[in-house]
Amino acid sequence: MFSDFNKVPLPYNEPVKSYAPGTSERKEIKAMLEKMRSEEVDIPMVIGGQRVRTDKKVRIRPPHDLAHTLGYFHQGGEEHVKMAIDAALSARKQWQAMSWQDRAAIFLKAADLISGPYRAKINAATMLGQSKTVFQAEIDSACELADFLRFNVYYMSQIYTEQPKSEHGIWNRMEYRPLEGFVYALTPFNFTAIAGNLPSSPAMMGNVVVWKSSNSQVYAARVIMEIFEEAGLPDGVINLMFVSGPVAGKVILTHPDFAGLHYTGSSAVFNTLWKNIGENISKYKSYPKIVGETGGKDFVIAHPSADRQALVTALVRGAFEYQGQKCSAASRAYIPESMWPEVKEKVIAELKTVKMGAVEDFTNFLSAVIDEASFDKLASYIDNAKKDPGIELIYGGGYDKTKGYFIEPTVIRAEDPKYVTMCEELFGPVLTVYVYPDNAWTETLELVDSTSPYALTGAVFSRDRYAVEEANQALRNAAGNYYINDKPTGAIVGQQPFGGARASGTNDKSGSYLNLLRWVSPRTIKENFVPPTDYRYPFMEEA
Ligand code: NAD
């Protein structure tokens, strides 16, 4: 309808750089890693554009190199949460009055800063702070974050052009107002792109935001904030604070102007937040929008007709890239009996070639898990599995936290398809395999669907189209992102909008217009150019 009305640049997916030996990007990132390792940064909160420091400084170390110090961040308390809310509310009037084209320009500029002058910095920060290999950092903090920003600008313009029809003499309009209050963005450690997207997507739609990053992602979060500021984001629109989740919740979730929650993280924390919101519902001026993308127990199921090498590659990449710390990581696999000996041999052979260590050494495929709590949790699941007579250790099972939080890529085979590691999210490099009888395809599909409370991602491998079709139907509600003959990780903005249902979240598909719609409260405007001047209708006249 308004196709030529202030068209925004067409979005595209940021090309992924290879970092192969001899490339300029490799040289640049190596130099940046060295520089960042050589300095200790002091990271204040950013509230209303002010740098806010406290007397509680928390040390930041690379999870793979615990002896090294990257810097310190300033931990805040309740007063800083209040300060962030006040700063957001003071910025609200001016920000929501700014034209959407100007808001778009800020975020488009941020995307170009990320893909250009800040690329090495944001990638190096993600590598050092979150122990991502250069490739994992590139697809996350550079490419996916730039994609979120560019695609969201495009979807925003699409939403604004969506208008109701008007009869003669009347003009009907839909005004996509921002929410009346502030949005709370609460972000996880595992994706810098998500940390950037959760505060920026509501802000793009005209909202003001209080952002609490994960303590384990502060090192890259401050680069995101730096980029937003350089792109021209006015003070107070996004306020970055470093406080504990419960402290933030206590102030935010009881505030009358709390208007929305944009969350990604574990299901358990989301459940607590939702419950708190419910308990405080009478305190709010509006019903808050609640968006949460949460945990997963993502499956790979192979039909006897599956291409074995493709399956093996999907398992190795899907389960172990970024140490299995992706919400989409393959963590339970269902392999037919006839195929298992060959698949097992190939997985072991591949994993033997996998190197684990510091991300600064580019030959490593895996690095450390995020923190000690995660390390200890994984180690205890592995210990329990080793002791269980129903478990066969196929590969790995070792762990060591002397230098960093290293857990070997581990594959176990469970006799019981409902064994604990087939059902619960471990969030680490552990893959559990269940071997099923070849003639039990239908029953195994049912098992996949009913084993875990989650429904985030899943993959089916088959060359038999009838089997694919049966799986498509049987697993319709088992995954919000469903893959046929591909690994269940690596969703790309604009191509595979991401999110799951059941215990995996509200499925509002980050990086799509569906998500942006949650951050508006539309006002319908009807204007009558020649309004009636007599209350009587024709039917009321005498015959
Ligand atoms: P987490 O639940 O530990 O933390 C998420 C955020 O909540 C962090 O900022 C944390 O500080 C905060 N938090 C922790 N406890 C809190 C409490 N009691 N009250 C309020 N806030 C609290 O998650 P994480 O370890 O950072 O991330 C991993 C989890 O995120 C996994 O479960 C993973 O599946 C999920 N995840 C989901 C998606 C998705 O799109 N579905 C994407 C990435 C990660």
How would you portray this structure in words?
By secondary structure, this protein is an alpha/beta fold. The protein has two domains: 19-45 and 74-294 and 509-526, 3-Layer(aba) Sandwich (Aldehyde Dehydrogenase, Chain A, domain 1); 298-484, Aldehyde Dehydrogenase, Chain A, domain 2 (3-Layer(aba) Sandwich), CATH 3.40.309.10. It is 39% helix and 20% strand. The chain contains 16 helices and 23 strands. It has helices spanning 24-38, 78-97, 100-115, 119-130, 134-161, 192-204, 218-230, 245-252, 267-279, 308-320, 340-353, 372-387, 420-423, 441-451, 465-474, 513-517, and strands at residues 41-43, 45-47, 50-52, 57-60, 71-74, 170-178, 182-186, 208-212, 238-241, 258-264, 289-293, 298-302, 330-336, 391-395, 399-400, 406-407, 410-414, 430-436, 454-455, 457-461, 481-484, 501-502, 520-528. The strands form seven sheets. It has a seven-stranded mixed sheet, with helices on both faces. The protein has a five-stranded parallel sheet with strand order 9-8-7-10-11, with helices on both faces. The protein has a three-stranded mixed sheet with strand order 1-5-4, covered by helices on one side. Helix 10 (308-320) links the parallel strand 12 and strand 13 (330-336). Helix 4 packs antiparallel against helix 7 (218-230). The mean pLDDT is 97. The structure holds nicotinamide-adenine-dinucleotide (NAD). The site of nicotinamide-adenine-dinucleotide (NAD) has 28 residues, from helix 8 and helix 9.
